[in-house]
């Protein structure tokens, strides 16, 4: 009877069964059936992105979540980002709900690039543009490597200031507030299983 079902239908039924048994994860037969269906959908998919999605789902159902074997945002990759992309990358880490009422304005002066960028957080969004802002709460001055560290991990500012690699002018508590609004992503997360 199962063979008469399409893979898509099996995955819908299997998803309900796997979700209901998530707490004890004992129904491996349901997982295997759903994995078989995803695998068939992967083999039949014309687009490589769908093939990868379906085959990854099948592997997760059979073997569980696998730890990431690589980092897509290694320190050298982040450091090589153009400044505008760097601020976009930081914006992705902002927790919108926490930042909904925040009002932060920080200027970042890149001494090795002779550029100043103004960053602000308002209404749950992080924005940046080239140039200094007249109403900034804090100015952070240093080379790009130090500023990248502060932007993505504001708590790293104190040791950098003590070592002389960074200078803060203004209200340095703004960095603590920014740090409380940023999220750290775990690359090892469930894709199919609840």
Annotation keywords:
single chain, alpha+beta, about 190 residues, five-stranded mixed β-sheet
Summarize the structure.
The protein is of the alpha+beta class and 194 residues long. It has helices at residues 7-20, 28-44, 48-63, 75-80, 83-92, 144-152, 157-162, 173-181, and strands spanning 103-110, 115-122, 125-130, 138-142, 167-170. Helix 1 runs antiparallel to helix 2 (28-44) and helix 2 packs antiparallel against helix 3 (48-63).
Task: Describe what you observe in this structure.
This protein is an alpha+beta fold and 194 residues long. Helices cover 45% and strands 16% of the residues. It contains 8 helices and 5 strands. It has helices at 7-20, 28-44, 48-63, 75-80, 83-92, 144-152, 157-162, 173-181; strands at residues 103-110, 115-122, 125-130, 138-142, 167-170. The protein has a 5-stranded mixed sheet with strand order 3-2-1-4-5. Helix 2 (28-44) packs antiparallel against helix 3 (48-63). The radius of gyration is 23 Å and the shape is elongated. 23% of the residues are buried.
Chain-wise SSE layout:
Layout: H1 7-20, H2 28-44, H3 48-63, H4 75-80, H5 83-92, E1 103-110, E2 115-122, E3 125-130, E4 138-142, H6 144-152, H7 157-162, E5 167-170, H8 173-181
Parallel strand pairs: 1-4
Antiparallel strand pairs: 1-2, 2-3, 4-5
């Amino acid at each position: 009877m199962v063979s008469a079902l399409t893979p898509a239908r099996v995955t819908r039924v299997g998803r309900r069964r796997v979700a209901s048994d998530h707490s004890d994860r004992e129904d491996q037969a349901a997982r295997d059936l759903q994995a078989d269906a995803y695998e068939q959908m992967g083999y039949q998919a014309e687009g490589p992105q769908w093939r990868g999605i379906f085959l990854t789902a099948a592997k997760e159902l059979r073997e569980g979540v696998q730890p990431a074997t690589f980092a897509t945002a290694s320190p050298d990759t982040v450091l090589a980002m153009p400044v505008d992309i760097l601020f976009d990358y930081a914006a992705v880490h902002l927790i919108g709900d926490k930042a909904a009422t925040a009002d932060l304005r920080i200027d970042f002066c890149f001494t090795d690039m002779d550029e100043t960028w103004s960053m602000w957080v308002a209404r749950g969004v992080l924005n940046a543009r080239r140039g200094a802002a007249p109403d900034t709460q804090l100015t952070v001055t240093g080379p790009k490597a130090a500023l990248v560290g502060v932007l993505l991990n504001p708590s790293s500012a104190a040791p950098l200031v003590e070592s002389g690699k960074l200078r803060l002018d203004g209200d340095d508590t703004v960095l603590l507030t920014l740090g409380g609004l940023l999220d750290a992503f775990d690359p090892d997360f469930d894709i199919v299983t609840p």
